[in-house]
Every structure is written in C-alpha cells, then in structure tokens.
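step=encode ok
step=design start
structure_in=
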C-alpha cells in the first residue's frame, strides 16, 4: 500500500562549500599562529675504537700541552704563546718522516686556545694528520 505513488521524494543535499570555507579559515589561522622552533643542539655520535696500537710509531710527533700553556714538541720545550716557534718546531720534527702524525697530549685543564694554536701550527707546517691522546677513566673499585 503505497499512498505516495505520484510524489517523488527528493534526496537531501549536503552543501560542502561552507564546510570548505570554514576549514580554509582554520588552516590559515593555524599557519599564522604556529611557531617554528629551531633546535640549537647537534647530535654527535662520537667514534669508538677497540683497535690495537700500531707497531710503527716512528712517524709520530708528540706535542704535550701543560695547564699553563707551556708546550713540549718532540722533547723540545717551547714558551707559551709563540706560534712561530711552534710551527718551526713542528717542521723540524717532521723533517725526514714519511706521513708524520701529530699526537696532541693536552692537560685536562689546558685552555682550548692552546689546543687550537697547535692545530693551526700543524696546518701551517703542512701536517694534516692529528690525533688527540686520551686515557681511560679509572673506575673506583
């Protein structure tokens, strides 16, 4: 028994245009109010080595840096702060050595500037290989 035979029922329409307008306004609001933070941190994965010591140590040039900035290059004592003497001492120590390696033994309380001075002097003496010597921490027993 269909009493509505002659009447055709119209399907309801959903108007999406106001919804799209609302979403665009919300999107613009979020873009304007969002703060972008920059991280000043740098993630550094330090290398670890379990290799055995090299047998040949004849090409190494030891450079010791004391707490007060005094330096010892291949057994020769240098006054603190003399970069020209440091370059000359590195060149003398590297003379006749094949691929010399500068080994920096810096005191834990030595300034960064003294280590940078050694690095600059090695660059000026055309020595490109540097090693920073460290020691293992003693664990309390």
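sequence_out=
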């Amino acid at each position: 028994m269909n009493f509505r035979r002659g009447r055709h029922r119209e399907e309801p329409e959903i108007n999406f245009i106001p919804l799209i307008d609302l979403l665009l306004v919300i999107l613009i609001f979020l873009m304007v109010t969002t703060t972008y933070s920059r991280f000043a941190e740098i993630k550094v994965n330090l290398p670890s080595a379990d290799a055995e010591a090299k047998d040949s140590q004849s090409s190494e040039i030891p450079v010791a840096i004391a707490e007060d900035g005094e330096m010892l290059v291949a057994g020769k004592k240098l006054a603190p702060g003399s970069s020209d003497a440091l370059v000359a001492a590195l060149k003398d120590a590297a003379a006749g050595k094949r691929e010399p390696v500068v080994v920096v033994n810096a005191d834990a309380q030595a300034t960064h500037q003294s280590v940078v001075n050694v690095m600059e002097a090695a660059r000026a003496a055309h020595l490109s290989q540097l090693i920073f010597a460290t020691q293992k921490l003693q664990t309390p027993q």
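step=design ok
step=annotate ok -> The radius of gyration is 35 Å.
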